[in-house]
User: Fold this.
Amino acid sequence: MRIRWTNLLLIVILAGASWLGMMVTHECGHVLNARLSGGRVERVVLHPLAFSRTDVSPNPRPRLVAWGGVAWGSALPLVVWLASRRLRRPLTPLWRFFAGFCLIANGVYLVSAVAKPVGDADDEIAQHVGLLLPRFARLLVSRGGFIGFAEKFTKEGDQRPGSQSAAMYKVAPGWQVTDAMIEEFKKYLTSQGGKIDEAAFKTDLPFIRAMMHYEVDVDLFSVEEARRNLSKVDPQIQKALGYFDEAKALIAKKTQ
Assistant:
């Protein structure tokens, strides 16, 4: 029994380490392709209990950057394993496990992206946002428009050196996106070489407001704050909440 528990513990540790290593190599692929394509990496988010993420702005080749995660994230571990096997290194079995883990994880990622885009697929923020992304909104996301514009915001009371340099707006928790901010966002997109389709912009305005709020909250407050505010306008969550009364009625009817 002691041997079995030892083996189980080893598997858990190895799987956990492989998960973290897979995310690191995956994001390194995004970073590498972003640099090669002339993009600028704003931030890399790594968390053991969530999907990793690389934000690039400006991002002149969004598809190249998106595919970099899967391509390099699968190829690099495979090359390391093959090199270790050729050199007959003692850790070759561990590298083989890691390479297989990365291939399976990235394969599952691609398959899941077909059914429901997540991570770095075209609708890369679908995992965070229930809002469906029309073509114009998808373009704003893929080019990092919201991420770059979030740099114009700072937290009220933040006196750190450099925190005020590019900031136009000082905000506190509970802030709202104003019409003036929307107009400034349009100017920002134009300055970055974007073309504004006024009809599409008006149609996608609820999404644009939500994502502006989300990216600023992530930068200045916390991911939890950002998701909490986003859930208030997320149609999928709101629709789900609408079923609570119906569920309560069904439960009450069943218990009678």
